[in-house]
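Researcher: I'm preparing a figure for a lab meeting and need a structural model of a single chain. I don't have an experimental structure, so a prediction will have to do for now. The sequence is pasted below. Please return the structure as tokens so I can convert it later.
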Amino acid sequence: MSTPGRGRPAVSGDYERLYDEHPEYAARRLDGSFEQQQVDIEVRDFKLPQLLALWPGPPPGSVVEVGCATGELIAAWPVAPGGRRLGLDLSSRNIEAARRRFPDVEFSAVDFRVEPPRGHFDLVVLSDVLEHVEDDAGFLRDAARLGERVVVNLPLECNWLNARRKYGAGDVSGHLRRYTLEQGLGLFDRAGLQVEGWHRAWLHETAAEDERRRLRRRRLGRAFAGGAVGAAARAAIFAAARLVPPFGRRLFPSNLFVLAHGDSNAPR
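Model: Understood. Here is the structure written out token by token.
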């Protein structure tokens, strides 16, 4: 299926079914679930602060998030008084859950390349999206056209724990590929965008990871997965990763956070 007027492939309907039925997203849609609380922590204490650190000046007047899933990030994004927040996602079930939980935010279950939202936005947000789509550069380029600037959160998974992970259609999280830092930054060149700023961060080095461990202890009985021996071994490895940052940064994935604009959307 092609996008009218552009001749670019639209996202397959299989993606809608995948994220409607994916166990992780189904769990996130349940109010008060462990998975929902874990996402809240990651958004509040990791993703949002890292992304906002790139944004210059006062809050934008309008923000659209492409691939908003269950809506936590767009609902937390600050906007100017009377500003507009719009979340777009292919999964109608994710959007239903987002509307129920965040009634003050506008949500729509559409492919933005087939049904573009009305208006032009100050900011476009893409968080943990591009690793899920086949034409990552084309998707980024098309999304960036919705606004003046775009901010992106991209996982960098060339690390020891993901060394044997089989990426592609069968990946448990739906990741089609993994990126190095160079590949992540190169994605913006391929999309024809100008990078204004970027930084890299490791979740395990932040307070968000401590909050996640406290949540696991409260809800699951242990801060680390596994039986007594396995959990103790994981705890020791995690402590070593914190104590010796070069080791931790090779062991765990990181995230690349980027602010960019297209040539036609140069900041004024």
